[in-house]
Amino acid sequence: MRTKCPKLVSSKRLVNDKQLKIKIMFTTIELKEVQPSHEITRNFDLKYERIKAVYEGRIDACTCGCEGKFHYTKHYAEYKSQVEGNGLLLSMADDKKVQRHLNRAMIHHQQKPTKTSFFVQMSGGYCIKVRTHTEWNEAEYKDVQMGYIIDLHWKDIKLNQTPINL
Fold this sequence. Notes:
By secondary structure, this protein is of the alpha+beta class. The protein contains 3 helices and 10 strands; from the N terminus they run E-E-H-E-E-E-E-H-H-E-E-E-E. It has helices at about 15-20, 75-85, 95-110, and strands at about 5-10, 15, 30-35, 40-45, 50-60, 70, 115-120, 125-135, 140-150, 160.
């Protein structure tokens, strides 16, 4: 008989299989009282189809992928391919990986909502940062912030409470 093993969410937090089976894909994702990088705290209701990617890794510095990894949704990869003629993401897109990392980010958000923040991207869109833990960085001789960034389409986000002030 196979025993259930806990799955690693971060190096600081273990969750069991039951906690990871939150049904997120193709449903509304609710993020309550998300702290802003500017303006005021907001609640977000997000459709899974609006998510471009989930980034996991270092979130307090450059998020180009050198200290983390992007997990792209299939619908975003198809959009990039059709609209922009960029088919590079098609082979990398994986909805199951996106959902797995989104589940982990949501668990951390539910446990400590004050560690979740949002910001407006220069190119348009929103990013929601979910801090998970810190790790020692040998190159910089300091602790760095690790976590998830949920990358979202600009026009498709329903905001609760307040309008956007740009």
